[in-house]
Amino acid sequence: MTRTDLPLPEPANLIGNVWQPAVSGASMDVISPIDGLPFARIADSGPEDVDAAVAAARAAFEGGDWSRLSAAERGRLLLRLARRIEDEAEALARLESRDNGKPIRQARADMAVTARYFEYYGGAADKLHGEIIPFLKDCNVELHREPHGVTGHIIPWNYPAQMFGRSVAPALATGNAAVLKPAEEACLTALRIGALAVEAGFPPGALNIVTGRGETAGAALSRHPGIDFISFTGSPEVGVLIQTEAARNFIGCTLELGGKSPQIVFDDADLEAALPVLVTAVIQNGGQTCSAGSRALVQRGVFDAVVAGLKARFEAIEASDSGEEAVLGPLISARQKARVEGYIANAGAPLIARGGIRAGTPDGGFYVAPAVFGPCDPGSRIAQEEVFGPVLCVIPFEDEAEAIAIANGTEYGLVASVWTRDGARQQRVAKAMRCGQVFVNGYGAGGGVELPFGGRRKSGHGREKGFAALHDFTTLKTIVTTHG
Ligand code: NAI
Ligand code: MG
């Protein structure tokens, strides 16, 4: 079991750069998925804590020190935070691994990406600028990009530090003041990064963090009349609630709600290259990744070869505690484990292979042996619903048209990949995918801070990462001056 070198936090929220317990005094356990045991406590916040955080953000945005900074100064603060995250990356990774259960190597990669978000958006802060539009002869027309004001951020437990960077860094870079509600299942690195932001010199109220349950603290933030925009990553069910509250407050929102992302393998694909990626894309982070490649669509001519390759690879994978050798850690909670085991028990398709659970892993941990099923009916539950676990379904297809129809045949649309050596087919299929990102002869779950990312339909809307996020966190103002 990994150990953390960081002191565990007191149960408190970060409001106006001061650590404050919940007004009610309530706190709740933090459980490590590695052994199922509580090891820390966080504030179990209510609406009054959210009120205080939104008020602190409002004060920072309207007249506070934060509002007086230039774009370059904001960028410098973000860069300083990036350096601090890098300096503390190993300890942060150990904390993340214990809190979330993810393999330590995954947690290390996450910290590099988290720092990179603050570096990328720190560098971008003073490079986002307006435009001039040619209009009537006696007019000057300027387009200004302005921050929304106070932004709400509700993030999930699967990548607590990365999600913090992805959601909050572009909001701060553009001058918003942020209130973050991380997930109750795993939020200790988010709290630590909050402390590092204070050390880096962020003025009071620029960044506020309120911990607690979704139905209380999360709901209070999403319906708060004092927020001007909300960014949410999590389940479609809660996404509907967030969007409903945003509608009541007449504000915009970004929703990232997961997916059922396909990898399409044609007969002419380089199977040596594709097979390991088919496996890692659904095993990474225990399959608890919004962009997990959870469907393998395989053309008839290579179906048997791909199934044989997947069988050998899945049989060799063992879930284990999250030490140096681990590739598959425990799932986040007993609830998530039960949910995934339920999908496995009711897959309704032949089991191709099941991996194992390493002997000696702690008894109380939330371990699930990985599973691959096929051939799966493309319309079946296992092929349509997001499992959010180490479960791959393999679906055969005859030709390109059928592959496209199956790939686009779910309610989701987040990521897709196409494996083929045929250049024209690469272009046709990539253009036909109804989703936000397509990879040709590769797959990128996570990473790629520069690359705009987001979904369609049940996967959500709006774009994060890249410059696209800077656009989402700003609102456009047109100023027309008549100069005669
Ligand atoms: P969830 O959507 O309930 O939780 C995500 C975040 O929303 C957490 O911070 C939570 O506290 C907050 N939240 C929950 N209820 C809320 C409410 N009524 N108002 C405001 N905020 C609220 O997701 P959960 O229950 O942890 O996972 C269920 C399933 O959702 C997973 O099995 C997976 O399929 C999907 N999911 C997708 C994620 C993604 O990356 N797109 C991340 C997490 C879950
Ligand atoms: Mg939930």
TrEMBL record:
Domain Aldehyde dehydrogenase: 19-479
Pfam families with a match to the protein in the record: Aldedh
Similarity field: Belongs to the aldehyde dehydrogenase family.
UniProt source species: Rhodovulum visakhapatnamense
Gene3D superfamilies, per the entry: Aldehyde Dehydrogenase, Chain A, domain 1, Aldehyde Dehydrogenase, Chain A, domain 2
Keywords (A to Z) from UniProt: Oxidoreductase
Matches recorded under CDD domains: ALDH_AAS00426
Protein name per Swiss-Prot or TrEMBL: Aldehyde dehydrogenase family protein
InterPro entries (UniProt xref): Ald_DH/histidinol_DH, Ald_DH_C, Ald_DH_CS_GLU, Ald_DH_N, Aldehyde_DH_dom
Active site: E256
